Amino acid sequence: MEFISKIVECNGNPTEIIMNKMMKPCSQEELDAMSAQEREGCKYMSPLNTREYVAEEGISCMQDVPVKMRDGITIYVDIYKPEAAGRYPLLISWSFYGKRPFDGQSEWQIMGVPPQTVSDMSKFESPDPGYWCRRGYAVANVDPRGIGHSEGDFVQFGTQEGRDGYDFIEWAAEQEWCNGRCALSGNSCVAMTQWRIASQQPPHLACFAPWEGTSDLYRESLYEGGIPATSFVGMVNKEAVGLNYIDNTAENAAKYPFADCDYWKDKEPIWKNITQPVYITACWNHFHLRGSINGFRKVKSKKKWLRVHRNFEWPDAYSNENLQDLENFFARYLKLERNGWELTPKVRIEVQDVGEHLFMKNRPEENFPLKRTRYEKLYLDASDLSMKTAPCAEEKMAAYESEDGQVTFDYRFEEDTEITGYMKLRLYVAAESYDDMDLFVNIQKLDTQGNWAPVTIFGEPHPGVWGKLRVSRRKLDEKLSTDYNPVQAHTVSEKLEPGQIVPVDIEINPTSWFWHKGQQIRVQIAGRYIREDWFEPLMWDQDNKGRHLIYTGGQYESYLQIPVIPPKYQDGDIIIR
Fold it and tell me: Fewer C-beta neighbours within 10 Å, C or N terminus of the chain?
C-alpha cells in the first residue's frame, strides 16, 4: 500500500494527514489484459457512461450524472426515479461504498436478509430504488469526492464531506425532476455521513434518517475506551475504489493518538447546527449503539424520534414493518402528507429478555435516558465474587492473568427488575507488575440456575452489554460526563506504577433488559474481549502484562451502578410497564 502525507484543512486549520492510494477502478477489458500481480491493486468498476436508461419496469436511471462542487471538483451520481414524468422528493445515499451494487464493495452480503429482498439497484446499506421509486421517490447513489470516477481525494467523515453533501443537495433541489425536498437515508457508514452533512444545514435538506450511525469516530471506533482498534476500519477502507487517495484513518489514529487535535475535531458533527426533523434507530447489540443514542440526545431538532431494537441492522432496515414506518416519516416531510406521523412516540424501545425473545416491543417513552430511572449500586465483593446492595466493610482483592484469565461478580435479583439506560462500573484496580492495563467488561444475564442466558443475533450469543478502558486513559471529560455516564477526556496518558491502586469509572453502553425474579446479573472483567463465537470481526491492540488486581470493600468501594426502571403503574399485584 502506497502512503503519502498531504496537508488538508481540518477543523479550519491546515493539517498533515496520512493518505493511501485506493484500489484503481478498471473496466473488465483492462483487468483481462493485466497479469495476476497487476490486478492486486485494481478492482472492477464500469467505465463512465453518462446516459439515461430503464433500470427496471417503471424505473429509469440517470447514470453517471456529473455534479460540480463549490471548489470545481466533479463527483458522479446515479439517480433512480419513477419513469413517469414528474417532480419527486429525493432520498440520498452518501458513502464511499460503490454507487452500484456490483461496483466497489460488491462482495459484502446483507446478512439476515433473504436473497432478492433488495434489488440490484440498491447501494450497500442504503434505500432501495426498487422499493422507493415505486412509491413516488427518487433515489441518488452518490460516489463522494475521490470515490470511483469522482475527482479529488477522499477525507472521510469530515467537514469537507459535509460541505460536498450540502452542494449536492442544493444542486439536486433545483433539478426539474426534484420537488425541492431532499433527505439522507441509510445505515451504518451511510448513516455516519448524515450527521456531518446535516451539520452544514443545507436549506433543502427537509429531514434525514440515520439508522445505526457512529457519531464520535474517536471514542466509538478507533479508540473505544482508549484502546486502539484499527483493524476493522483498515479492512473496510482498503476496499475503497478510486483514482486518487483516501484518508487512512488507521494510520492517522497512530499519528494523532489524542482526541483534542484538529484531525479528530474535524470529524465531530456540529450538533448545534442539526435542527432538521430526524428519525434515528439503534441496536442494543451493535457497535453503532453509542453513536446513535448520543446523536439523538445531542441534535437540536425539536422533531426527533428514536427507535431502539435488539435485531441486527440489515434485517431491521429492510423489514416490511420498518420500511412502512420510515415511509410515513419521509411522506410527512418530503411529500408534506398529513399522515399523523407526529403522533409517533418520541422514543420506542424493545426490552430484551433472552435469546431472540423480547419482554416488550416498541414500548413508547418520552425521552432517553428515561426520566423515571432509579439508579442503584451493586457493590463488588472479592471475598465470594458476588455483588451486594450495601458496601462491604472488609477489603478484599481478586486477580486474574491479563493474557487469558477473567474474574466475574454475580448478583441474584429477588424481584422482577428492568434495567434500561446507562450502567457505570467503578473499580479500584492495579497492574501487579506493569505500567498499564486494558479492561474489557461485559454485563451478562444468568438464568435461575446460574447458566449464561444471552441475547442471540443470527443464532449466535452476544457477549453482553460492554465497556472498555485503558487505565492510563482514565481521566474523564468533566463537560461530557454525568454521574450515570462517564466519558473519557483522551487528552493525556497517565501511566501506572506497578501495584499502584487507582479508581476508574468505566462507561458501559446503554441497554434495555429484563431480569425475572431469581435470575442473576454478572459483571465479567478480563484483559481481552471474550467473544464466545460472536461474529463481528473486531480486534483491539491490547497492552497488558502479568496479573490484574481488582480491589473491593472498605476504602475500595467498587460497584456497578444500574438504571432500574420502576413500573409506570403498580396497584398491588397489578403492574403496568
Answer: N
Instruction: Indicate the angle between helix axes 159-173 and 189-199, nearest 10 degrees.
Output: 80
Q: How far apart are CA 439 and CA 420, in angstroms?
A: 23
Q: What is the pLDDT of residue 330?
A: 98
Residue written as grid cell 450524472:
65
The whole-angstrom separation of Cα 22 and Cα 47 is 17
Cell numbers of 34, please? 493485466
Give the domains, in start order, of the chain with CATH numbers: 3-271 (3.40.50), 374-564 (2.60.120.260)
| CA 110 vs CA 107, 211, 281, 312, 316: distances in Å | 10, 15, 18, 11, 11
- A 10 A CB-CB count for 571 gives 8
Q: Which three cell numbers stand for residue 522?
A: 454478572
List beta partners, residue 65: 77
What confidence score (pLDDT) does residue 38 get? Answer: 79
- Beta-strand relationship, 520-526 and 74-82: unpaired
Q: State the pLDDT at residue 106.
A: 41
Phi (first) and psi of residue 295, to 5 degrees: -60, -45
**HEC readout, 33-56:** CCCHHHHCCEEECCCCCCEEEEEE
Other CB atoms within 10 Å distance of the CB of residue 543: 18
Q: At 176, is the secondary structure helix, strand, or coil? A: coil
